[in-house]
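Work through what follows:
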Amino acid sequence: MSIPFVDLHRQYVALQKEIDAAILEVIRESSYIRGPHVEEFEKKFGELLGMPHCISCANGTDAIYIVLRGLGIGPDDEVITTAHSWISTSETITQAGARVVFVDTERDTYCIDPSKIEAKINKKTKAIIPVHLYGHSADMEPILAIAQKYGLKVIEDCSQAHLATYHEQMTGTMGDAATFSFYPGKNLGAMGDAGCIVTKNTNLADFCATYARHGGKNEHVMEGINSRMDGLQAAILNVKISHLFSWTKERRALACIYNEELGKIPGITTPVERSGCKHVYHLYVIRCEKRDSLRAHLTRKEIGTGLNYPKALPFYKAYAYLKHRPMDFPSAHHHQERILSIPIFPFMKMEEQKEIIQAIRDF
């Protein structure tokens, strides 16, 4: 039995009638760019988080860039972020004209290590972008305290953390703004690219909405960019959003079984859930000293896996100019050669999970 890393087709089959009807409605209305379906999604997602402003955009990468511009961050500024994330988090800092400053990660959660942030702050520092990686919240209390102490902005990258919580507070509701991706494989995913920004700041929300739409329709008050959510993607997300809580519960149940069974296997380190946090397991990431051999073994068994991510950001060629060494980020460097993502997704079958566990046990 071949087991995919993620199976989005099963999700579609389960919701086929609703999704097909939503797509047909968009086609009948020709509401392809923004329109009522987009407005409905902005309202629904904002209410889900309890946030007054939700600004849709084309993707999660644009969302970070737009917020950076909205906060006035640009040349001669520095922005602190984690050494372990997808490159969207850091490349947008550079695109805004600022300099990216990486900070090492916590050993257990893979999120930015708050104890290492203060040493990287100087007069040029303007913001911190913590990433709620894999579905686990960064340790926000000390991060927010540091930001307040130095007058820094906080942008939460929630692309992998829909409905994750930190001391009963939803991720995306604690910083100056937060960004979300609805890339197809996310916990709440479209059938193409889509993203959004949430904030409590009305002026920032107004800027982001205007900037993402060419600086204002007909009355261009600024030069902006073209970053609008498709009506089709919004209609699909409007169908899926009502299932997000049940899908999250399913992910957590699968993770609980993994934790119990894989935790018994010597040589396997399972994910940690910090006290007071609710992990939503966008990815289920284990560590193994013989990661590459284990991955090859699972591949032979036709079990899909992923490397999220094969290198810590400072060690990619894109950041060679920063001249970082492994000793600068010992935790992130240690993880990059040992982490392995294994299948976890709604509609995953019990027998599939049993087979994965047994294959790891056999190895």
Notes: Residues 159 and 341 are 17 Å apart (CA to CA). The chain has a mean pLDDT of 97. Residues 244-262 form the longest helix (19 residues).
